[in-house]
Amino acid sequence: MLGRSQIISRGIAYTAAYAGWFEAVVWSRTLALYNRYASCYRRAPLLESCSRRDTFLQVLEDMRQRHEFVVVGYVVMPEHFHLLISEPEKGTPSVVVQALK
Fold first, then answer.
1. Around Cβ 81, how many Cβ atoms within 10 Å?
2. Whether 81 and 48 share a structural domain
């Protein structure tokens, strides 16, 4: 039997059924996720105010539309942020983070 990472990378998930049988579910497309982290310049609390966080989120939405990726999750702290995103259709995850910084 294939390991979990091999099953997911082939786009197939196996779920256990009764009497030892397995039901295979094939996904139409696998989703690669990227966990990205970036800090502000010299770790200064540049994202501390609500207006700056709102501006950051607007820029994130603009980048999401421009590079065509899915934001699965994010955390905005006063001096850094974390992103969990899919692979962009245009560009790379690094380009997205560079543009946000």
1. 22
2. yes
- Please write the tens of the pLDDT for every residue from 24-66: 444 444 568 888 889 988 899 999 999 999 999 999 999 999 9
Cα gap 75→37, rounded to integer Å:
9
pTM for the structure as a whole: 0.66
The domain in which residue 60 lies consists of 31-100
Q: Clarify whether residues 61 and 80 are in a common domain.
A: yes
Contact yes or no for 11/29 (Cβ under 8 A):
yes
Q: How far apart are CA 60 and CA 65, in angstroms?
A: 9
Six-digit token pair at 71?
């934001």
Residue position matching structure tokens 């690094």: 94
With cut-offs at 50, 70 and 90, classify the pLDDT of residue 92: confident
Residues with Cβ within 8 Å of residue 31, at least 6 apart in sequence = 70, 86
Q: Looking at the structure, do residues 60 and 84 belong to the same domain, yes or no?
A: yes
Q: How far apart are CA 46 and CA 79, in angstroms?
A: 6
